[in-house]
Design goal:
Length: 391
């Protein structure tokens, strides 16, 4: 019995180990299955979720959504909601805290209004894409005060009937101090006509600024002075010239790459400083592509190959005719004023004549009195007589 028991004991141990391994494997499988089922159950309707282990990628693309889907997987790291009909973003659009959300893309959703605190429940958000919308109101308090956002894409999205309100909406957002960690800002395709010196003043870590395909007509000196720019894209705007102050700002950023092609450069005497600067600097990456747009005789001429002697400030024929017309009109006005003045003199000729006679008599009396006193002072006898008579 002992031998049998020992033999039996020896035989049963391996079977028991196999059973334990089987139970452990089954438990792990059921745990994974439950987790997968729970994650799948959290995937919003009309969306596709890809579980990569610890994080999840959620894509809701061209599904005709009218609001942000809910609930979202709590471990979502990348969220794509594009090509839908979500007109408004409110504080309730993202009610749950998404601790791991790093990349949020909301492009092409026809968004018009963004209320305060929309993105405050995303402490790990680094990349936000709001491109290709029609945002007419973007509240300046959409982010929390301690956001770590690094890349912000607003290309082809800011829309407002008033250019002043348009640039003010952007300025208020970037000047409230919540985007101190931002290093990339894309404002391309927004039909902006200017960028003020204060607009970018609260972005000390900004390195990449994209302003392509706007209607910017001038860049004031000091606009980029306090930034850490590495790349500045100003292609396809309406720049005609750049001032010395702006060129000096570019020189303050060593290693910067500036893109200036496809602007309407006016090649007259006012662009001379820019031509000289282009010939010396390496900051403009596409300087060989800068072409004159005006005047007609220099059209398509490369700025880099221009001679300063070719740059003249010559009025066009239309301007000459305008000036000639102005001179003729001015002459007519002056002649009319002269005629009116002579007419007034003629109508008041008697009064003027009397006034002149009065002035003449007053002057005569004054001179006679002066002459009398002079004779007394020069004759001692008359002087003593005058003193005696006074006594």
């Amino acid at each position: 019995m002992l031998v049998v028991d020992s033999l039996f004991y020896i035989k049963i141990i391996p079977n028991q180990k196999k059973l334990n391994h089987l139970r452990l494997g089954l438990a792990v499988f059921l745990h994974v299955l439950v987790l997968a089922t729970s994650q799948a159950s959290l995937c919003p309707d009309k969306c596709r979720c890809v579980d990569s282990g610890k994080t999840t990628i959620v894509k809701c693309v061209n599904t005709n959504l009218s609001a942000i889907p809910y609930p979202l997987p709590p471990n979502v790291k990348t969220l794509f909601i594009t090509g839908n009909n979500i007109s408004n973003l409110t504080a309730d659009s993202f009610p749950q805290t998404l601790e791991q959300l790093n990349n949020l893309t909301l492009s092409g959703n026809k968004i018009e209004l963004i209320d305060p605190k929309v993105f405050t429940n995303m402490p790990s958000l680094r990349h936000l894409d709001l491109s290709n919308n029609r945002i007419s109101r973007l509240n300046s308090e959409v982010f929390s005060s301690n956001t770590f956002l690094q890349e912000f894409n607003l290309s082809s999205s800011v829309f407002n009937s008033s250019y002043t309100k348009q640039i003010k909406g952007i300025s208020d957002l970037v000047q409230n101090g919540s985007l101190l960690n931002l290093d990339t800002l894309n404002l391309s395709d927004n039909d902006l006509i200017y960028v003020t010196e204060e607009t970018l003043s609260k972005l000390p870590n900004l390195k990449f600024l994209y302003l392509r395909n706007n209607s910017i007509i001038n860049i004031k000196g000091g606009t980029f002075k306090n930034l850490q720019l590495k790349k500045l894209d100003l292609r396809e705007n309406s720049l005609k010239q750049l001032t010395n102050a702006t060129l000096s700002d570019f020189d303050l950023h060593p290693g910067i790459q500036v893109y200036l092609a496809d602007n309407t450069w006016d090649c007259d005497c006012n662009i001379e400083d820019l031509v000289i600067w282009l010939q010396k600097t390496e900051a403009v990456a596409d300087k060989t592509d800068l072409l004159c747009a005006f005047p007609d005789n220099l059209k398509t001429t490369r700025l880099l190959k221009m001679n300063v002697s070719q740059l003249h400030c010559i009025f066009s024929e239309d301007m000459k005719s305008v000036l000639q017309t102005s001179y003729v009109f001015l002459g007519i006005v002056l002649a009319l004023i002269g005629v009116i003045f002579l007419l007034v003199l003629y109508l008041n000729r008697k009064g003027i004549k009397k006034w002149l006679y009065n002035i003449r008599d007053a002057c005569r009396d004054h001179m006679e009195g002066y002459h009398y006193r002079y004779e007394i002072n020069t004759d001692p006898r008359l002087t003593n007589l005058s003193l005696n008579s006074d006594v």
